[in-house]
Amino acid sequence: MTRRPLGFLGLGNMGGGMARWLLRQGWPVTVFDPVTQLVQACVAEGGVAAASPAAVAAASEVVLSSLPTPQAVEEAVAGPEGILRGLRPGGIYVDLSTIDPATSRRMHALVAAAGGRMLDCPVGRGPEEAASGRLLLMVGGEAALLEEVRPVLATLGDPILHCGPAGAGAAAKLVNNLVSCAINALNAEALVLAAKAGVALPVMVEIMKGTAADSRHLRITSEARVLDGVFAPRFRLALAEKDLRLAVQMGLDLGVPTPLADAAHRLHQVARGQGLGEEDQGAVIKAIEVVAGIEARR
Questions:
Q1: Sign for the pseudo-dihedral over CA of 221, 17, 109, 138
Q2: Which of 7, 13, 137, 178 is the most exposed place for a label (fewest CB within 10 A)?
Q3: Alpha carbon of 287 to those of 182, 246, 282: distances in Å?
Q4: Which of 230, 136, 115 is closest to 180 using CA atoms?
Q5: What are phi and psi of 136, to 5 degrees?
Q6: β-strand 123-124 against 135-140: which pairing, if any?
Q7: Single pTM value for the model
Q8: Nearest CA among 87, 77, 11, 71 for reference residue 47
Q9: CA dihedral 72, 73, 74, 80 (to 10 degrees)
């Protein structure tokens, strides 16, 4: 199979893992990130460094990005040194970021006006899966374009789920993270309440794991990390707050009430205000612990 030249923008916890995995699987990848050390980590795997998103686009048939906010995506696409400045005729842009569908649709339109094509393709799962080709991919855009770039996406993970037209992948990711982040917040609330009530927390977790209260977050976040006081970022709390904010706003835009997501978002806002934004999303429990006057640890 011919390996098309790829570009990759954004080399953080998720993007860096994806870019290095693509390189290890034999794809030629030109990379850009404002953090030099992240670029050098990809260069050490055979990547080629570029000076700007425009330079990445000029060197690539398919440009991928994994960026933290809608504003970062807009700058990477339409900024003074953005993708549009270097996009090849018929070039393809695949945005793997978690952003709102309105921004995603605007980027689709800008790329199309510049003679290119785009998919929104946010991903599920975490940094470990990003670095080993085991992500879940949610795709919005033309089905025919998805088939054209399927070999690239299949390197990153499985399943690859076509969610609908432009912006549908972005919307699906926000709905997913609405549930995921709210469950994590609810688990935090439950563990602090159990601790305050005198329940042994390992026992409480075993009870929840054996009932309909079970969840992936209970196992990989609460049990495996929070109870041991491990808050090194796997998915930063600041990003969880951002995703909940975007999900709540999407609900407002569409006239769909999201009271539980709104409550979870407010709790994340409090935690971020307490300076916890750079810790793992599991650190949302600390906002409840401060008020309750107890730590929920083993």
A1: negative
A2: 13
A3: 14, 21, 10
A4: 136
A5: -105, 135
A6: antiparallel
A7: 0.94
A8: 11
A9: 70
d(CA 175, CA 101): 11
SS3 for 114? coil
pLDDT band (50, 70, 90) for residue 141: very high
Is residue 173 part of the annotated active site? The answer reads: yes
Q: Tokens for 146?
A: 């998805």
Burial class (CB in 10 A: 0-12, 13-18, 19+), 4: middle
Provide the 10 A C-beta neighbour count for residue 113.
Answer: 9
- Give the sign of the dihedral formed by CA 71, CA 123, CA 101, CA 142: positive
User: What is the radius of gyration, based on Cα positions, of the chain?
Assistant: 20
Query: Model confidence over 88-120: pLDDT tens digits?
Result: 999 999 999 999 999 999 999 999 999 999 999
In Å, what is the CA distance from 122 to each residue of 17, 140, 256? 15, 9, 22
What phi and psi values does residue 229 have, to the nearest 5 degrees? 70, 30
DSSP class of residue 219 equals I
Helical H segments across 25-90, by residue range: 36-43, 53-58, 70-78
d(CA 70, CA 226): 29
Nearest CA among 133, 53, 37, 145 for reference residue 92: 145
Catalytic residue among 173, 196, 242, 286: 173
pLDDT tens sequence across 147-202: 999 999 999 999 999 999 999 999 999 999 999 999 999 999 999 999 999 999 99
Half-sphere exposure of 63 toward its Cβ, with a 13 Å CA cutoff?
A: 35
**pLDDT tens for each residue of 41-63:** 999 999 999 999 999 999 999 99
